[in-house]
Amino acid sequence: MAWRGLHLTQAARLSLADGQVCVRQDAGEVRLALEDIAWIVIDTPQATLSSALMSACMDAGVVLIFTDERHTPSGVALPFHRHHRQGAIAKLQFDAKDGVKRRLWQAIIRRKILNQAASLSVLNRQNSETLAEIARHVEPGDPENVEARAARFYWGRLFGDFVRDDEGDLRNKMLNYGYAVMRAGVARALVACGFLPAFGLKHESAANAFNLADDIVEPFRPFVDGLAWTTLGDRVAKNGDLTLDDRRAMAGVLLMNGRVGDAKVSLLVAAEMASASLCRALEFEKPALLELPELERIS
Length: 299
Prior knowledge:
Largest sheet: 4 strands, mixed
Cofactor: Mg(2+); Mn(2+)
GO molecular function, one term: DNA endonuclease activity
Protein name: CRISPR-associated endonuclease Cas1
CATH superfamily of the largest domain: CRISPR-associated endonuclease Cas1, C-terminal domain
Low-confidence stretches: none
CATH class of the largest domain: Mainly Alpha
EC number: 3.1.-.-
Number of helices: 10
Subunit structure: Homodimer, forms a heterotetramer with a Cas2 homodimer.
Number of domains: 2
Number of strands: 10
């Protein structure tokens, strides 16, 4: 089972050799078993990949994440759908009843807000109990947009003077980097389960190839938020670019731990569990079967 990621920030030549990823740099050569790798972040313009390696990555279900000149994740490569029940899973998506999708969205947003509350608690910020109470008011489909109300409350307590749309804010740069890696991990898991990620439960943009990933990633976001908060430390947040250490930290978000039921698992595994459970929830029309990661509070 794949359990690790590769984050490249220096010039390198990547190729396939005996079922391994061969990384050649000026300092030497490193080989990693392809079957152990779940994601690769190409965070340098001086990296080359052989076509044989890219083909092998697609066969193995490895997601490739590419960044732009500002070191912001800008695209992903995923395998074509290879699930043995591809047609059946696609039919589940298309035939899903509106009532089931609304209740699934309710569960997703409730868990997201509860994880936001837990994030405040873990980081010793104020009013986590109030946010947990807000989660109780999410109805199927969230017609009152409780998610947005909770977000305004949450960001004000987590970061204080903070505007989520400010692209120059270092905190936003960290969040966007981590969210992109987390989203790619969720998309990878969905494709592995046979889903068509363009067709979502709530997100339905015609221009978005990852609507379903954007649905399922929501409860994972507070994990990214906490990682960004701790990575930032005491630095001034209003300016500056991501450092190499920042990017390395945020690229590792899929290795963070969460709780799914009684099990403590990495977010990489949690994404796989969420995707598999979504299939069961749609098949049996029971949203309660959806398994989402829980960020544990400090008691």
